[in-house]
Amino acid sequence: xxxxxxxxxxxxxxxxxxxxxxxxxxxxxxxxxxxxxxxxxxxxxxxxxxxxxxxxxxxxxxxxxxxxxxxxxxxxxxxxxxxxxxxxxxxxxxxxxxxxxxxxxxxxxx
Amino acid sequence: xxxxxxxxxxxxxxxxxxxxxxxxxxxxxxxxxxxxxxxxxxxxxxxxxxxxxxxxxxxxxxxxxxxxxxxxxxxxxxxxxxxxxxxxxxxxxxxxxxxxxxxxxxxxxxxxxxxxxxxxx
Lengths: 110, 121
Description:
The complex is a heterodimer.
Chain A: E1 9-12, E2 18-23, E3 35-40, E4 47-50, E5 64-69, E6 72-77, E7 86-93, E8 99-101, E9 105-109
Parallel strand pairs in A: 1-9
Antiparallel strand pairs in A: 2-6, 3-4, 3-7, 5-6, 7-8, 7-9
Chain B: E1 3-6, E2 10-12, E3 18-25, E4 34-39, E5 45-51, E6 58-60, E7 68-73, E8 78-83, E9 92-99, E10 108-111, E11 115-119
């Protein structure tokens, strides 16, 4: 199972929007609606912010939204805030009871 | 409330084995499977696999087949990750995690605090 492909870095100014992509194949992202996104601050455990492509767990601000087109999923962070500066990881179900993560994207709020 | 509490940091020499525990509370361990995730220093998340806590059946990710074993002790609501023949590249933080609802892949809403395993002579 190859890791999903994410850009290593992304950035934006406070108040702006940023989009982070996550590219897979028809065997993972393209084949299932089980894409999740996680936010991880340094030294902390990952936090789920999007699941099943577009759904937000309770307590996650609606500034975070997810989408998918073909084999690529995207996370949009609107109205960037300084606390959004973190690493972001996508994941997807890959069939046969397997999950795969992306390589991660470091989001910098300028 | 659901909690996953992991065992403390470990320092092991190359070639040794380590067993990391993940104690579940606030729910019945056998109701939802436990996933294991590795994060090497400065690196990304890697899914190692999961164990069906109802049947005890493990699924190992392709990259981790061979030296790892998932196990359970339901009497103490605890899942375990054992890694044998440790090498320096096994140095990482290991997390256990579970989904909110069984059958929803990737919905890893509950995480342990992580266990740092350092392999060094």
